[in-house]
Prior knowledge:
The chain is α/β, with parallel strands linked by helices. It has helices at residues 11-23, 35-39, 43-49, 62-70, 87-95, 104-111, 137-146, 170-182, 331-337, 342-348; strands spanning 6-9, 29-33, 56-59, 77-79, 97-101, 119-122, 153-157, 189-191, 208-209, 235-247, 252-253, 259-260, 265-270, 287-290, 293-298, 306-309, 321-325, 355-357. The longest helix has 13 residues, at 11-23.
Amino acid sequence: xxxxxxxxxxxxxxRRNFQTALNRAGGAQVMAVVKADGYGHGIGPVASALDxxxxxxxxxxxxxxxxxxETGLVQPVVLLQGVHADADIEECAxxxxxxxxxxxxxxxxxxxxxxxxxxxxxxxxxxxxLGFHPDELAGVMGKLxxxxxxxxxxxxxxxxxxxxxxxxxxxxxQTSVFExxxxxxxxxxxxxxxxxxxFHPDQPMFDWSRPGIMLYGGSPMVGKTGPELGLEPVMxxxxxLISTRMxxxxxxxxxxxxxxxxxxxxxxxxxxxxxxxYPRHAGTNTPAAINGQRIRLIGRVSxxxxxxxxxxxxxxxxxxxxELWGRTVGVDEVAACxxxxxxxxxxxxxxxxxxxxx
Length: 358
Ligand SMILES: *Cc1c(COP(=O)(O)O)cnc(C)c1O
């Protein structure tokens, strides 16, 4: 028998979250962002579950786009980071992958090829990570014309730095920089919105939105959980209780003896740890649940197990399943306790944890 440590994936909840994104996309079409193995949920099953709903997928790199084709799906796949070598561009043309180009080097690769893919241009509207500066766009368009590659251009993409914070003025500022930069080139598509932008009431959504985290039920907004935004958890991370014991007052539990019982405490060991991707930075008082009752972590997370205080679940017994995050304990709550975001927790679940789909 394999251990029952498992990430259960609710594909119906994923589909309902996609519908929520569509309802919030203000008439834009929605490409489903399924990079990083579908945010840890499994890119094949996730993309297949969205077949018929999502007209396009978006991933970071070519390997991820191939994984979508390997599941038999034929939708266009946007490569958000473009390609890393000239040889990859031909594959894009053959496979219907749409790279987003952010550099003159990538454009020069286009020049040498006969078979060219449809592609996007990344505009740096202020995040200063990737993309052409607005002042460079006229030159880029000139170069594309000169090498007769302008016909493949689908449109422009930009990415927001602070959309998770509804108070920040930067999203509106970036939108305005982007609109101005692209206004000289009418008739091309535009795409700006990540998940967070779907929760800004006045955000222009243009032609295509690009939600990622919200499809998986994680919150894209600072200070709000996914369920508070009307999103459903998709992943339920579960592991069995493999031991229970009474720890007398004054004794410690685990590495570093960092947690000391202030009273006699019934505790349990759960078969999951940072070797499974559960965050080691989740300290004492991080919530978990057993049989629908909330409990808390105590002491340090080990590689293969972690300790919980069973005071809140007096009937819990060896073999019971503990929910590390899911419907009772939100992934955003655990992320806050670990000093991170749900994105990192979901994508961090390792291959040791089987994904089970329903
Ligand atoms: C990852 C990514 C997205 C999706 O972001 P979420 O915050 O997960 O919605 C959209 N666009 C680009 C360019 C990305 O890299």
